[in-house]
Amino acid sequence: MIEENKLSVKIDIVFKRIFAHKGNEKFLREFLSSLLNLEIKEIKKLK
Q1: Interior/surface letters 4-19, b for 16+ CB within 10 angstroms, e for the rest
Q2: Phi, psi at 17, each rounded to 5°
Q3: Could you tell me the mean pLDDT of each successive run of 10 residues in the chain, 47 residues long?
Q4: Counting beta carbons within 10 angstroms of the beta carbon of residue 28, is it exposed (0 to 12), middle (13 to 18) or buried (19 or more)?
Q5: Which of 5, 9, 11, 25 is the most exposed place for a label (fewest CB within 10 A)?
Q6: E strand or H helix at 22, and its extent?
């Protein structure tokens, strides 16, 4: 039997890696659109 290691997006580092990593803006935009039930056209990073 092969045991699979799964990471949960509930873990902050995993969430950041998926949604805040450069090149994954599409995932963040789609996630926020679904969550907020709004059309998100652009995301700007604030410092």
Answers
A1: eeeeeeeeeeeeeeeb
A2: -65, -40
A3: 69 82 89 93 81
A4: middle
A5: 5
A6: none
pLDDT value at residue 20: 85
Nearest of 6, 10, 28, 9 to residue 19 by alpha carbon? 28
pTM beyond cutoff 0.85:
no
- pLDDT for 18: 83
Could you give the CA distance from residue 13 to residue 24 in angstroms, rounded to a whole number?
15
28 close to 43: Cβ distance less than 8 angstroms: yes
Joined together, the tokens standing for residue 7 give 């990471």
